[in-house]
Design goal:
By secondary structure, this protein is of the alpha+beta class. Helix content is 49%, strand content 17%. Strands 5-6-2-1-3-4-7 form a seven-stranded mixed β-sheet. It is globular. The two termini are 31 Å apart. The relative contact order is 0.12. InterPro entries: Acyl-CoA_dehydrogenase, Acyl-CoA_DH_C, Acyl-CoA_Oxase/DH_mid-dom_sf, AcylCo_DH-like_C, AcylCoA_DH/ox_N, AcylCoA_DH/ox_N_sf, AcylCoA_DH/oxidase_NM_dom_sf, HsaA. Keywords: Monooxygenase, Oxidoreductase. Belongs to the HpaH/HsaA monooxygenase family. This is Flavin-dependent monooxygenase.
């Protein structure tokens, strides 16, 4: 079934690419694209089988995201971050899973995990308030996952949790006016004094330990992977997809290009152009290979019933942040070598350049922090596994 989803996604790519300008004008992925992705089963890839999902290999999910982003960066980004949420919902208590999918297994969730909200402990749950930024794809979702610090009665922080909130209890504030990833509709979420039952929360200490109450119902190895491995991959994969799309357009453009400044030389006969293409393709391939191989290695440990080594989890993050940078470096090199026509509105290259650099500023792509932790672990220093 997973292959059928990939085939269905690939059939949609020409149409998704044609709608890229529309997504930018609307500042949100067109509803038709979301509906078509839903119909081919994309949003079910990481969803539990008991809710009509496929429980697919994460690499299958990443492959679909990569392909979508190669046609439209904004659509790939939204597909990735919305499409990964069923994986986390599967870790929540069964009561929360039933609330999301019990009546409609097509239900989607957006998110904003930075703990900019505040939750206070009360009987049976928490009172949540705050404003969260950058909830990509929220216009296409009827629930949201929000990060928040938990305070006790004495005002002390006692936990960091994800809170699952239904649409009628939050407000979407239209603030997304950006030059990159313009079509993602990454608007703000406002919550004011909403009661969240305990069952609709998940501690980051649990996900850091690769645990969650939902594992009682959803026993697949898929749901035993580290949160930070799965989720940070959803940020790098669209950028790799953008790089693949930029590469394809660059090669096509250069095959047709005549360089007036160089006495009518055909760009395809320029040896330096060939070198740039070789280097860019290697960077893109390396980013993808490392991401895929690392996730597969984690899956192998889980399949054997083994604990995933901290060193491997840190390597996932090391290669993830560097994978984003490799893909962006490739896009930069291709863009710079493409000539003035690459600046034209409607070209994939200029859009990929803007979208990839917008994706670069996501917190998951903070290279120094991830690389410092990897190096510290290699030197024998203690590193908190819950963050990786």
């Amino acid at each position: 079934m997973s292959q059928a989803v990939l085939d269905g996604v690939r059939d949609l790519l020409p149409t998704i690419r044609e709608r890229a300008d529309e997504a930018e004008r609307l500042r949100v992925v067109p509803e038709a694209s979301i509906k078509e992705l839903e119909e081919v089963g994309f949003f079910r890839l990481l969803q539990p089988k008991r809710f009509d999902g496929f429980e697919a290999d994460p690499v299958t999910f990443y492959t679909a995201v990569r392909d979508i982003a190669s046609a439209c960066g904004s659509t790939g980004w939204v597909s990735s971050v919305v499409g990964v949420h069923p994986w986390q919902v599967a870790l929540f208590a069964d009561e929360a899973q039933q609330a999301v999918w019990g009546e409609d297994t097509n239900t989607r969730l957006s998110s904003s995990y930075a703990p900019t909200g505040k939750a206070t402990v009360t009987d049976g749950g928490y009172i949540l308030s705050g404003k969260w930024s950058f909830s990509s794809g929220c216009d296409h979702c009827s629930w949201v996952l929000l990060g928040g610090l938990v305070f006790n009665a004495d005002g002390q922080v006692v936990d960091f949790k994800t809170f699952m909130v239904p649409r009628e209890k939050y407000q979407v504030i239209d603030v997304w006016h950006m030059v990159g990833l313009r079509g993602t509709g990454s608007n703000d979420i406002l919550v004011e004094d909403v009661f969240i039952p305990e069952a609709f929360t998940l501690s980051m200490s649990q996900t850091g330990a690769c645990k969650g109450p939902g594992q009682e119902q959803n026993t697949s190895d898929l749901y035993k992977l580290p949160f930070h491995s799965i989720f940070t991959g959803t940020i790098t994969t669209p950028i790799i997809g953008m790089a693949r799309g930029a590469y394809a357009e660059h090669v096509e453009m250069q095959q047709k290009r005549t360089r007036a400044a160089y006495l009518g030389e055909k760009a395809s006969l320029d040896p330096f152009a060939a070198v740039r293409i070789a280097k860019a393709s290697s960077e893109i391939d390396a980013a993808w290979a490392l991401l895929v191989n690392n996730i597969r290695e984690e899956m192998d440990h889980v399949a054997k019933g083994e604990k995933i080594p901290l060193g491997l989890r840190l390597r996932v993050r090391r290669d993830q942040v560097l994978g984003s940078q490799r893909a962006i470096d490739a896009i930069d090199a291709l863009f710079e070598a493409s000539g003035g026509r690459a600046l034209a509105e409607g070209t994939y290259l200029q859009r990929a350049w803007r979208d990839a650099h917008a994706g670069r500023v996501h917190a998951a792509n903070d290279p120094e922090r991830a690389l410092q932790m990897f190096g510290a672990h290699e030197f024998g220093h203690k590193v908190d596994p819950g963050m990786y």
